[in-house]
Amino acid sequence: MKNKKRLNNNQVQDKSRIPFRLNLLFFIVFVLFAILVFKLGDVQLQHGKEYQSEIDQTKLLSLSTPVQRGLIYDSRGHVLSGNKATNAIMYTRGLEVKKSEMYDTAVKLAKYISIDPTYLDSKNLNKWDRAEFYLADKNNNKSMLAQMPKEFKLDKKGNSLSSAEIDRNLVNFTINQKINLSSQQKKEAAIFKSMEAAYQLSTVYIKTNGLTDRELAEVNEHLLELPGISVGPYWIRENTTNPTISGVLGSVTSNKQGLPADDINSLLAQGYARNDSVGTSYLEQGYENILKGSKKVSQIELSTNNKILSQKTIYSGQMGGSLNLTINSQFQNDVSYIVKSVLESTVAGGYAGKNDGAYAVVMNPKTGAIYAMAGVNRDIQTGEITYNPLGAINKSYVMGSSVKAAMVMGG
Question: Which residues form the Penicillin-binding protein transpeptidase domain (predicted)?
Fold first, then answer.
């Protein structure tokens, strides 16, 4: 009996403990839930407008990056115009980036890369460029502005000039002071000039040739302290050196040359950037729409102070289409050699007279396909003979009177 009573007492005690534990657990959950509700209310009611303002002021913008240009092949599949892949140092300019910020970046970047000496001479880095770089330093700008006479800051009526006019006068005043830049500063100035050429959210190439593994590693290592600087691919256009056909292919501008001045407005309207490479003559220009490809598109998220928060690729781009010619490069060489040999034998026989060249085009009469387009020029004064395949379409001769009459009779 005593054992039964003890058992019953233990069961009653266990039963009394269970509701207490549950009540304690429910109380803790209630307290945590109350804290969560309070925090949510604080965020929504007290700071809601602030957070919503940040969301509303975040900007999403697009950035386009060039892709590899299409190749040009002959009828046998041999590459006549291709691309040499290389690494490059690039700079993407953000919104409202100050010159002083670009100056700081240029000075830091100059510690890690070398610059082609030709970019440092007076032709590529003139007095205006050097003065602008010098004034991009806040201390130099403040010092020169204090030294500049008041007449360069005021108009004839004594009113203050616009900031743009004062800046222009300050550059001219600095040029007259004949400042001297060290070799290191000239390198920094060349980098600064390239960076300044970029407009908002556009990318320019700082260095495309001769980038060493060490330079690449050092720049990658310090990217966090180089805002806007990145490392990416760059393609140098390489045409065949064969003189019998190279002229037919045409030419492409480099990134430094950018868009040709004659067509810049129409090309900008088509979505080109000012520093894009573009075909400027013959096949490269005629088939530009096929060879250029589709640019890579990235989406950039900017904060309220126009700092880049994130960047993601939304379209990876597409390499330009390839161009397959009907011209057989080996056959082109053979025809060019024959044309040159015939002209040389004519000159040797004393029959050339004032003949300044010879040209030949081999075509398929049924399809119009061109298998070879050969030509040679002869300098009448020196007798030198050079290859000029474009002469077959660019050269013209005035026909004799008998030929004209025959043309009239033939209708």
Answer: 359-409
Residues 276, 281, 284: CA angle, nearest 5 degrees: 65
pLDDT grade, residue 299 (50/70/90)?
confident
Continuous H helices in 94-225: 99-109, 127-136, 138-147, 163-176, 183-196, 213-221
**Strands, E assignment, 2-144:** 59-65, 72-73, 79-92
Rounded to whole angstroms, the Cα distance separating 285 from 138 reads: 45
Q: Which residues pair with 91 in a beta bridge?
A: 204, 229
322 is catalytic: no
For residues 285 and 35, the answer to whether their CB atoms sit within 8 Å is no
Residues 268-289 pLDDT 10s: 888 888 778 899 999 999 999 9
Q: Give the largest Cα separation in the chain, rounded.
A: 148
Sorted by sequence, the CB contacts under 8 Å of residue 129 that are 6+ apart come out as 189, 193
The rounded distance, in Å, linking the Cα atoms of 86 and 238 is 12
Buried b (16+ CB within 10 A) or exposed e, 368-390: eebbbbbbbbbeeeeeebebbbb
Sign of the CA dihedral with 238 first, then 242, 243, and 249 last: negative
- Reported as half-sphere exposure (CB side, CA atoms, 13 A), residue 319 has a value of 11
Q: What is the per-residue DSSP string for 34-73? A: HHHHHHHHIIIIISHHHHHHHHHH-EEEEEEE--PPPPEE
Identify the residue with better confidence: 200 or 267. Answer: 267
CA atoms within 13 A on the CB side of 33: 6
The answer to whether 355 touches 378, Cβ cutoff 8 Å, is: yes
Angle at 185 between CA 181 and CA 191, to 5 degrees: 130
What is the residue type of 49?
Answer: K
Count of all residues that appear for the chain in the document: 411
Which residue among 16, 122, 163, 401 is the active-site one? 401
3-state secondary structure of 307: coil
3-class DSSP assignment, residue 233: strand
Q: Is the pTM of this model over 0.85?
A: no
Could you count the other beta carbons within 10 Å of the beta carbon of residue 241?
A: 6
Backbone angles phi, psi at 35, to 5 degrees: -65, -40
Do the beta carbons of residue 150 and residue 156 sit within 8 Å? no
Q: Helix H segments across 250-385? A: 264-269, 282-286, 288-291, 329-348
Q: Tell me, what amino acid is at 21?
A: R
Q: Which of 20-29, 201-210, 389-398, 399-408 shows the lowest per-residue confidence on average (mean pLDDT)?
A: 399-408
